[in-house]
């Protein structure tokens, strides 16, 4: 795996991945950026979220579970001093499927967190990691 990251001015960078995709990153205005694109540390969270969401969907689909959507919301805290690594990560999964079993969702999240999601596991080497989840069943009418 490889990529090339090129400075394009101010605090903006253009990255080309080994698979030929382009990603733009920019810094905050207080760091000389123009706030035109995600920050590099945000990209780490995006990568971890994409990695674990991919795992969960793949595990559930391979198990022939009726999953139709998966959303992962990540909240992160960083160290106050340099290097400002992630110190806490909380993943909240919202998994959608008619008649989806809680045990299947829990198992898929556990497998991603413990075995398959390289990005999350790597970030977990500096951060305390926690997970919560909920299931949305579109076949159940909810009233208040």
Automatic annotation (TrEMBL):
Which InterPro entries does this chain map to? Answer: KH_dom-like_a/b, OsmC/Ohr_fam, OsmC/Ohrsf
Taken from the record, one Pfam family name reads OsmC
Q: What is this protein called?
A: OsmC family protein
Q: Which organism is it from?
A: Denitromonas halophila
């Amino acid at each position: 795996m490889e990529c090339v990251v090129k400075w394009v001015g101010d605090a903006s960078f253009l990255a080309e991945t080994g698979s030929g995709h382009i990603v733009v990153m920019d810094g905050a205005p207080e760091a000389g950026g123009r706030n035109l694109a995600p920050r590099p540390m945000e990209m780490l969270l995006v990568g971890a979220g994409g990695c674990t969401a991919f795992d969960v969907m793949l595990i559930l689909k391979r198990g022939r579970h009726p999953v139709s959507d998966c959303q992962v919301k990540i909240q992160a805290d960083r160290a106050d001093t340099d290097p400002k690594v992630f110190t806490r990560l909380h993943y909240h999964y919202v998994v959608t499927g008619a008649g989806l079993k809680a045990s299947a969702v829990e198992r898929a999240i556990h497998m991603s967190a413990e075995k398959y999601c390289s990005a999350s596991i790597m970030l977990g080497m500096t951060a305390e990691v926690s997970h919560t989840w909920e299931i949305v069943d579109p076949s159940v009418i909810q009233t208040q």
